[in-house]
Amino acid sequence: QKKKKTRNTFIQYDLKKAEQFSLVDAMQYIRAFEVGRSPTSSKYEMHVKLRTLKNGPVVRNRLRLPHPVKTDLRICVICPPDSKAATEARAAGATLVGEDEIFAQIKEGVIEFDRCLCHMDSLQKMNKAQLGRILGPRGLMPNAKTGTVVKDIGGTVRNMVGGSEYRERMGVIRMAIGQLGFTPEEMQRNIKAFMDTLKKDLAQLSDRISKDIHEVVLSSTNSPGFSLNGEFRGANSIPTQDLS
User: Fold this and answer.
1) How would DSSP label each residue in 81-120?
2) What is the pLDDT of residues 73-114, one digit of tens each?
3) Is the pTM of this model over 0.85?
4) Does the keyword Ribosomal protein apply (predicted)?
5) Rounded to whole angstroms, what are the CA distances from 66 to 56, 70, 164, 189, 240?
6) How would you write 50-75 as a 3-class SS string?
7) pLDDT digits (tens, 9 = 90+) for 214-243
8) How far apart are the first and last CA of the chain?
9) Cβ-count burial of 130 within 10 angstroms (0-12 exposed, 13-18 middle, 19+ buried)?
């Protein structure tokens, strides 16, 4: 009996057979599924399906959208508490700033932040505190490779407060792209910024690694996904101000 060959790529469906929607139409249907919800509690989500190898390198990055979605991030900054960097961090919106008192809190298991940054000057002190086994599994350990050990604390915190992260999992990149109350024009600007950044990420991969965008799907917290056809509005779409 012939052994079945295992697939090294993800299954892709033929989009010619799928029903696709313009952005305005997809938003109209999604709003119908979200009737009665607060326009700030539900989010629009973007799912970008890639043609890619299963065991290839994954795409990951962060960007600041023209209209930020998550503005409630709690950011911890490890830096000398009386330094210029500490002042910049507080001014930019960091919730926790310091060194020893933060290390003590983390060791006690009190982690009241969503992101952690470390200033270059505090790197040795942080490494001596051995926080890796607590913060590492949570994905919070500052690391030069992921851009969380930095010199410019103020700029990085500002980008994070209004920034969004994305990473590829199982050949799909998912990201919150807008709040339910956003207008189609705001959504269009966010989607364009995200797609432009993603295309740059794909272009920077080496020539031997091929990744292409196969399908873009828009959904929300409580709605199914609608495959987008790349158009802003169709011939029979409702006026955009009706969705504002």
Assistant:
1) TTSHHHHHHHHHT-SEEESHHHHHHHHTT----SEEEEEG
2) 788 888 888 888 888 888 877 888 888 888 888 888 888 888
3) no
4) yes
5) 31, 12, 11, 7, 19
6) EECECCCCCCEEEEECCCCCCCCCCE
7) 889 999 888 889 998 888 888 888 888 777
8) 61
9) exposed
